[in-house]
């Protein structure tokens, strides 16, 4: 994930991911959200990821745990928004969904 960080960003990705990896997961989140009519969880994102054929030799993500790891790194880079407990994810800023840094600052003021 090579990108310019915002000034208020408190974190960096835990794992390095090439652009096509984050793009595929982001697309899977968007497709799942469109189908469900609400933000999806990691299992629903993986179901779409697998159904769309995004799991191939270039990105061997073959279970929902690996999708969750990619999602967590994307959250730390502010590429996704999550609810307060990190159960559902969206690519759109909306009420009740926050960046990783916003939640970190709410839980640990002055960090």
Report on the architecture of this protein.
This protein is mainly alpha-helical and 111 residues long. It is 44% helix and 4% strand. The protein has a two-stranded antiparallel ribbon. A hairpin with a 6-residue loop joins strand 1 (81-82) and strand 2. Helix 1 packs across helix 2 and helix 2 packs across helix 3. The longest helix is centred in the first third of the chain and has 18 residues, at 19-36. The mean pLDDT is 85.
Give the structure's gist in a few sentences:
With 111 residues, the protein is mainly α.
Indicate the topology.
Elements (H helix, E strand, L loop, with lengths): L18 H18 L5 H10 L12 H13 L4 E2 L6 E2 L9 H8 L4
Helix pairs in contact: 1-2, 2-3
Give the fraction of residues assigned to helices: 40-55%
Q: Mind describing the biggest β-sheet?
A: 2 strands, antiparallel
Backbone CA Rg: 14 Å
Mean pLDDT: 85
**Percentage beta strand:** under 5%
Shape: globular
Number of strand segments? 2
Q: pLDDT under 50 segments (min length 5)?
A: none
| N-end to C-end Cα span | 24 Å
Oligomer: single chain
Element-by-element helix/strand order: HHHEEH
- Count of runs of 4 or more consecutive helical residues: 4
- Strand line-up in the sheet with most strands: 1-2
Structural class computed from helices and strand pairing: mainly alpha
């Amino acid at each position: 994930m090579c990108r310019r960080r915002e000034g208020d960003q408190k974190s960096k990705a835990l794992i390095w991911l090439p652009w096509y990896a984050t793009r595929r997961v982001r697309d899977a989140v968007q497709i799942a959200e469109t189908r469900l009519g609400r933000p999806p969880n990691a299992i629903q994102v993986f179901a779409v990821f697998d159904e769309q054929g995004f799991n191939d030799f270039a990105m061997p993500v073959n279970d929902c745990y690996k999708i969750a790891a990619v999602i967590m790194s994307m959250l730390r880079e502010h590429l996704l928004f999550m609810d307060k407990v990190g159960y559902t994810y969206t690519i759109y800023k909306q009420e009740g969904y926050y960046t990783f840094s916003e939640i970190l600052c709410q839980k640990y003021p002055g960090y």
